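Dear colleague,

Thank you for sharing your sequence with our group. We've completed the structure prediction you requested, and as agreed, I am returning the results in plain text so they can be pasted directly into your records. Please verify that the sequence below matches your submission; if there's any discrepancy, let me know and we will rerun it promptly.
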Amino acid sequence: MSFELLSLENIQAIADHYGYWAVFGGIALENTGIPLPGETITLVGGFLAGSGELNYWWVLASATGGAILGDNFGYWIGKFGGWPLLKRLGRLFRISEHQLEKAKAQFSENAARAVFFGRFVALLRIFAGPMAGIAQMPYPQFLLYNSGGAALWASVMVTLSFFIGRVVPLAQMVFWVANFGVLVLMGIVTWVILSLFLEFRKNRLESSPLE
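Please find the predicted structure tokens below.
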């Protein structure tokens, strides 16, 4: 299914027809690593609950359960097959295995935060589970942070849509939330680039001969 087919209107139609299963399945697939608009699906579920078409608690349970299950699939996919795939992609884009090892080690240092808070960031919500598996994050630790992050993210998204959707058009709310996620992602990318630049500059100064 292409992204053009997953317009807000189509997502609403799917949610109207399949109800809680649409919320559960869409979010589970996204968190497995398939780039579906899980955030929008969750907001639509909360909106339908606010309009009385669905039950708030069942939408919340569906969103939380789908997020937990999907990330678990993503974790095990990353753990058993993600690293060889990542190395092949690295060769394709001329990224050395040493650089990949360094990136994996850096992710490992921040894996808990990435798994817990990554759901609020565009793209990281899709890749946090597989990356945790690739980084060999201990499964009990992953399950703890994954479940806690899923419950927090689902509660915020569903509750936000449940109440604000009564006074703000759904399309406008989806636009705001999506832009917030992109802004956070841009902030993270800027921080990473700045950190790499400062590290490169420090190493260059340390390696240069003294005058």
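Summary note from our side: Residues 1-5 have pLDDT under 50 and may be disordered.

Kind regards,
the structure core
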